Fold this sequence. Notes:
Layout: H1 13-23, H2 25-35, H3 38-60, H4 65-69, H5 73-84, H6 91-103, H7 119-130, E1 138-139, H8 151-160, E2 173-174, H9 177-186, H10 191-195, H11 208-224, H12 231-250, H13 258-262, H14 267-274, H15 285-305, H16 312-330
Amino acid sequence: MWSSPFITIPTSVSQIMLRVLLALLPGIALYVWYFGPAILVSLTLASITALATEAAMLKLRDRPIKPFLSDNTALLTAWLLALSIPPLAPWWMIVVGTAFAISVSKHLYGGLGNNPFNPAMIGYAVLIISFPVHMTHWLTPNALGHIEFSFADQLSYIFNGTLPAGLTLDAVTMATPLDTLKTQLHLSLSVDQIRNMPIFGHLAGKGSEMVALGFALGGIYLLFARIISWHLPVAFLASLFATAGIFYLIDPTHYIAPLFHWFSGASMLAAFFIITDPVTSPTTAKGKLIFAAGIGALTYLIRTFGGFPDGVAFATLLFNICVPLIDAWTQPKVFGKKESGK
């Protein structure tokens, strides 16, 4: 028989980050299945750049390289950034975005545990503002592809910017379902007419809805493994659903059903992997609910009325600013302390 005391060994940062990386694998596998292996190139480039930049910054800051390089936090930032941008993005763009995320938004603030903003979302924001055209070249799902676009062709475009003779970029890429919805609504089409387009599936875009489901499955694993708490994903998804539902009930011809927003863009990636970053999110349970609910509502508003098709990155960064204030408002009262004036 076991006897007390029962002492548990605390889980290290590297072990936690490794389990988060493993939880991303179902979504990545479905990404490869529906859109081809180009995303693996982006993940590899981002990983190499993140580790090299991390080592260089640690060297410049006179910090030990091995323990920080092996904590897997740089790899997680790299993977989240790579999964947020088009897989056909030029190699130099992935390198620039990842290097900026690690060097500026992480190490210039003091390194791990000190950065106020999510590094991956900072990298994404820099890329979409600086290179908006490249950020629109999303691969067409394999089920809709009428032209053979092999892995060798994808590599040639990523590293050389060249396509096979007679093949145009428009033939192998398309706008995302979110971007298509916004563009076609501006052309006075109804939601029902837009949903009949071939890129849309049962819930959202063909292929992309299954990728989102893969990330959701990985996120559920993190919940059961107690790597993340339920407050952030539940509040984010509930707020996104409720905000979309209100507009849908008001005018279903111009606003799409809430489930579309759950399975489009980076919603599931945000719910379970982006906003759950312990460094850039609140520490209190009530604060987490406020933080995530605000991001969910703002994501919908940016998607629907803003200038960008997906609002996850900017909504996350704006609420990162609010974290100190949210924590200050939601800190529990110290036991035994009298309130002022009493």
